[in-house]
Every structure is written in structure tokens, then in C-alpha cells.
Design brief:
The chain is mainly alpha-helical. It is built from 3 helices and 2 strands, in the order ααββα. The chain has one domain. Strands 1-2 form a two-stranded antiparallel ribbon. β1 and β2 form a beta hairpin. The model has no long low-confidence stretch (mean pLDDT 83).
Amino acid sequence: MKLDPVTQEIMATKAAAVTDEMGYTLQRTGRTLYVKETADFGTALATRNGKFFAYPSAIGVSGFVDLDCRPTIEAVGGLDPHG
């Protein structure tokens, strides 16, 4: 699917907002000091093929950039809630 530049920017901003919310939720509900007090964690969205494509807006530079998590996805197996 090809998106026009405006729609692409809107979608990128929405994806980054999702990762921001993931971080807020994790920090609010975390049970360790590393998560609750120091915020020593990261959030991102990845494709089913294991490539990260969205990061929180406040993160600046991320260690996730170009990280391939396919081996982890394959090791865990399918994430199908019905399977």
C-alpha cells in the first residue's frame, strides 16, 4: 500500500503515540524499581517479521534501530490469541 506524505506522517505520529502510551502504562504498572523509579526500559512496535518501526517520541536515539527480533519471535512461537 502506498500512502501520501500527509497520511504517512499521521500514521507515524499515531504509532509513536502508541509506544508512548506503552511506556506510561509499563511505568505505572511495573513492580520493580528499575521500571517504576528509574524508567530503565524501552518500548517499540515491530512488524511480524521482527523489524522495529515505531519508537516513543521522547526516546531520541534508540538501541532498537535496525534491531532484528525475528529469532526471538521464532523462539517464542506464534502470538495468535486463538492458537
